[in-house]
User: What shape does this take?
Amino acid sequence: MHRSPRLFAQFARWHIWLGWLIGLPVLMWTATGLVMVARPIEEVRGEHLRAAASQVDTSLPPGIALPPALDLTGREVERIEIVAPDGTPVLLATYRDGRVRRFDPVSGAALEQLDAAAAERIALLGLADSRQPVTSRFFAASDVPFDFRRPMPVWQVTTQDGTHVYVGADTARIEAVRTRWWRVFDGMWGLHIMDLQTREDTSHPILIVFAALAALGSLIGCVLLFRRRRARVTTHG
Assistant: This one.
């Protein structure tokens, strides 16, 4: 009969110590979660900035077929498709190792990587409004910006409001749109999963330990609710 108050007192001490230990992470999870849900995920991804498919001319001339001069000898091709990101049809070959090459669909000749002017033109065609590019910068696959994080050569086309439109130098397509809000969201996500380096590891020891402690603290708090309820009943009795 007398052990119950003593046990509740011990739980209360544990709850206080756990509160000091997990208070900051819990506050951080709550605050970062609030920021991340402040805007729709479609807006975070910049989908509202992309032009509708009907606004981009993808009409193809009749009779296009795989050209005989297209040399794919000895290469493992995963997919071949015809695309027209700027209205001009090109043949896109994707290899099993992830490489992408563009070819002229009529002559079969390999096409060079996009230059800055072509990348800007594709970026503008892919945006729904009239914003204009400010700068264009090329990044090799081994040195892509942190807000892109995909190992492929790209052009970073920056608009007046700080939006980064990434156009694949090999694919000639818009690979990603990164707004300033996306970069805020990305930082909050890194804090939320406690991984500011890669922002991709959602199962590492630090996160697991703090999440387990938070769960334990919440459980003890729930147990202490019965102590307060019992005390209230005893007082009224």
